[in-house]
């Protein structure tokens, strides 16, 4: 079983046309999901299409050069400052900051691709950026892949889904949530967003 069965979210959006309308009207969007699932690419495309500031938790909050993690208090302070912006799309899961981010969010996009697709996404990204730093990563964080990271991806759904659901219920029960579970859904959404409103 690839994805954990979950209760229906109170504000879940199931229709991509409706989701596209929400995105067009949103000023602040949170995009979350497993590494390798395509959330950064999706976020950057939406940011470019609608003139939203693109914020990456990996690049702007979590990592310092050389894959050194920032202190948790400093991470939180950065997020508190970033979410005060008027128009942004923030790429990153990090349920421990839902209490800060969700109250400022108009829409959540949850990228829930199958884990083998996420593994493939991470490996192909590594091959593409080998020896370099990709744009959505902090400077000095050369693209890498190891067994620990692959294990993180493989177990992401079972470890993070309960925390995500609890965080959404507690800090954003009325915020619309769109789940994208395939590349086809993602392409269809981007096609809809590319059309004139």
Pick out its properties:
197 residues, alpha/beta, Rossmann fold, 6-stranded parallel sheet, 8 helices, kinase, Cytidylate_Kinase-2, Adenylate kinase family enzyme, transferase
Can you put this structure into words, describing what you see?
It is a single chain. This protein is α/β, with parallel strands linked by helices and 197 residues long. It has a single domain (12-190), classed as Rossmann fold (3-Layer(aba) Sandwich), CATH 3.40.50. The protein has helices spanning 16-25, 39-50, 57-62, 72-82, 98-101, 115-129, 147-171, 183-194; strands at 12-13, 28-33, 53-56, 63-64, 68-69, 88-91, 107-111, 177-180. The strands form two sheets. Strands 1-8-7-2-6-3 form a six-stranded parallel sheet. A two-stranded antiparallel sheet has the order 4-5. β4 and β5 form a beta hairpin. α1 (16-25) crosses α8 and α2 (39-50) packs parallel to α8 (183-194). The longest helix has 25 residues, at 147-171. The protein starts with 11 loop residues before the first strand and ends with a helix. The mean pLDDT is 92. InterPro entries: Cytidylate_Kinase-2, P-loop_NTPase. Keywords: Kinase, Transferase. GO terms for molecular function: kinase activity. It comes from Rhizobium miluonense.
Total beta strand runs: 8
Give me the CATH superfamily.
P-loop containing nucleotide triphosphate hydrolases
- The amount of helix comes to 40-55%
- Topology order in helix (H) and strand (E) letters: EHEHEHEEHEHEHHEH
Number of contiguous helices: 8
Radius of gyration: 16 Å
* Average pLDDT score: 92
Domain module count: 1
Largest sheet: 6 strands, parallel
Spatial arrangement of strands, main beta sheet: 1-8-7-2-6-3
Structural class given helices, strands, pairing? Answer: alpha/beta
Low-confidence parts, pLDDT < 50 over ≥5 residues? none
CATH fold-level assignment: Rossmann fold
Specify the overall morphology.
globular
Name of the level-1 CATH class = Alpha Beta
| CATH architecture designation | 3-Layer(aba) Sandwich
